[in-house]
Specification:
By secondary structure, the protein is an alpha+beta fold. It has 3 domains: about 100 residues, Immunoglobulins (Immunoglobulin-like), CATH 2.60.40; about 200 residues, Rossmann fold, CATH 3.40.50.410; about 130 residues, Tumour Suppressor Smad4 (Sandwich). The chain contains 12 helices and 25 strands. The strands form 5 sheets. Strands 17, 18, 19, 20, 21, 22, 23, 24 and 25 form a 9-stranded mixed β-sheet that branches. Strands 8-7-6-9-10-11 form a 6-stranded mixed β-sheet, sandwiched between helices. A hairpin with a 4-residue loop joins β21 and β22. The radius of gyration is 29 Å and the shape is globular.
Length: about 525
């Protein structure tokens, strides 16, 4: 081989590397420009909370406004809010309250979604290595541990790990300590499990995270592009078959569930669409080339969310499930700041809230009033067994009592459910399960589907008598009449009856002759 022939491949490799670096620099510049543009706007709506929309006709906006320079304990600025059913005609809405740094007081629910594909077990340059400390996964774990250790006791954490498969390591609402222990259990995937199911895993994570209350932040970390198993191999995914998810699906789900997505692109191989997903959900995308930068990204996300303020306003009654909202205020130097986003108003009794007829709103108000009575005065116990009473069901069903028996009771639309309630298309086959701990005499409701207890979204909650459980418009009330209390009452009654009996007269002693 001639010397010239030997040099040409090296020159070609050099040119390819140069082109790669130019592309990377170009992408970095575009990201910087986008960041500057976002900063120039000065304000954004990061999450829209609709938990109080059904019961109090109130919507909460979580707002990021760094240009306002707000300080804890200071006076909140004045805000104006408008709503629209079509994004064109706007109606002014009254503002009920503005709170500075509400997330510091109420806590933040974080969900970490961590890439554990094969490339995460290479070094920062993508080369195989036997040095564990040099692997990307170790940098990711160290940054996550640092982030978790800095959380407030009020914060909550969930953790899921993905590659070809999806592992729900810590359910949402867990503790940082549980998440740290789960990180220590990560292992290198076999070749069949080493793919990057990025968007399908995000969809599964959002579904798992949706029932968490309050401020919800999903942080997804990946070192590459979406690389789905079924598409790349032509074989069904071992867990999800041929199911798939597109970026548009993730945006829609995040907006519907009120979850802010932050995307962290770790390394030089980056998914080209995930930044758009994060932005549309109210979040941002970050780039990190090593573990140190990654730790800084996590800290920036937490700091930004803590600095948010909340604006509670009285929502309108416009028709249509989708609504646009615009919020505006003025900076200290007189500059006008505004932000606009859309959200979904949700459903009332299984249908669009804004399409409900007047009689349905009256029915809902009556149900809410009855719920208040039940919460304040509890339920009269007609049995010494625990159960749930149907407060509102499809077709106006109500007043039925279902006894709870056994270690678990499944409630759903399936005919073979322990408590089967038909007629509600939004109720899943197995919508919720009530578990009973006989030793502790504790009842707990668990569900992967949307469930609220006393108007608070939950995935797991210990139940108390009088708790109102809403399952997609089917409403039941938990009624626990402890057998021990009933037994004590009977004993007390018997004791009182015994005391009321006249004392026996003493026998006279006969005198002997």
């Amino acid at each position: 081989m001639s010397r010239a022939a030997a040099i040409r491949p090296a020159n070609r490799a050099g040119r390819e590397e140069a082109v790669k670096m130019i592309k990377l620099a170009f992408m970095t510049a575009l990201l910087a420009l986008a960041t500057v543009a976002a900063g120039a706007q000065g304000m954004s709506i990061t999450q829209i909370g609709t938990e109080r929309l059904l019961s109090f006709q109130e919507t909460r906006l979580y707002v990021s406004a760094p240009l306002l320079g707000l300080q804890p304990g200071g006076e909140p600025p004045l805000f104006e809010v408008w709503e629209s059913a079509d994004g064109e005609e706007w109606e002014s809405r009254p503002v009920n309250a503005v709170s500075l740094q509400p997330n510091a007081d109420a806590g933040i629910s974080f969900f970490l979604l961590l890439d554990n594909s094969g490339s995460m077990w290479t070094d920062l340059d993508g080369n195989d290595t036997a040095d564990v400390a040099a692997m990307r996964v170790e940098g990711a774990k160290a940054a996550a541990r640092s982030f978790l250790s800095a959380l407030s006791p009020r914060d909550r954490v969930g953790l899921a790990v993905f590659n070809t498969r999806y592992w729900s390591a810590v359910a949402p609402g867990g503790s940082p300590e549980d998440a740290v222990r789960a990180l220590d259990e990560l292992s290198r995937p076999v070749s069949e499990d080493a793919y990057t199911e990025l968007y399908l895993s995000m969809a599964r994570g959002l579904s798992e995270f949706a029932a968490e209350p309050g401020r919800r932040v999903l942080i997804v970390l990946s070192d590459g592009e979406n690389y789905p198993y079924a598409l790349k191999t032509g074989k069904p995914n071992p867990e999800t078959g041929t199911a798939s998810a597109a970026p548009s699906d993730i945006i829609d789900r995040a907006v519907r569930d009120g979850v802010t997505v932050y995307a962290v692109r770790f390394g030089s191989q980056r998914d080209p669409l995930i930044a758009g997903v994060a932005g549309e959900s109210g979040g941002r995308a970050f780039d990190a080339m090593d573990g140190g930068q990654l730790a800084g990204v996590y800290e920036t996300i937490r700091r930004d969310v803590l600095a948010e303020l909340s604006v509670d306003y009285r929502a309108g009654m416009s028709r249509g499930e989708k609504r646009w909202v615009r919020v505006a205020t003025a900076a200290a130097d007189g500059r006008k700041l505004s932000a606009t986003r859309y959200y979904y108003a949700g459903t009332v009794l299984g249908q669009s809230a804004s399409d409900a007829e007047a009689w349905q709103w009256l029915l809902l108000a009556a149900a809410a009033l009855l719920w208040l009575v039940l919460v304040l005065f509890k339920l009269e116990r007609e049995t010494d067994r625990a159960g749930v009473r149907l407060l509102y069901g499809p077709g106006g069903q109500s007043t039925r009592f279902f006894e709870l028996s056994g270690a678990q009771t499944v409630i759903g639309a399936a005919p073979d459910a322990d408590i089967s309630i038909a007629g509600n298309p939004s109720l899943k086959a197995s919508h919720a399960t009530i578990l009973f701990d006989e030793e502790k005499h504790v009842f707990t409701v668990v569900s992967d589907s949307p469930v609220t207890v006393n108007n608070h979204p939950v995935t797991r909650k210990r139940l108390e008598s009088g708790d109102v459980i809403n399952m997609a418009g089917t409403v039941v009330v938990f009624d626990e009449s402890l057998l021990a209390k009933a037994t004590e009452a009977r004993k007390a009654k018997a004791a009182r009856a015994g005391k009321a009996k006249p004392a026996a007269k003493p026998m006279r002693k006969r005198s002997g002759k």
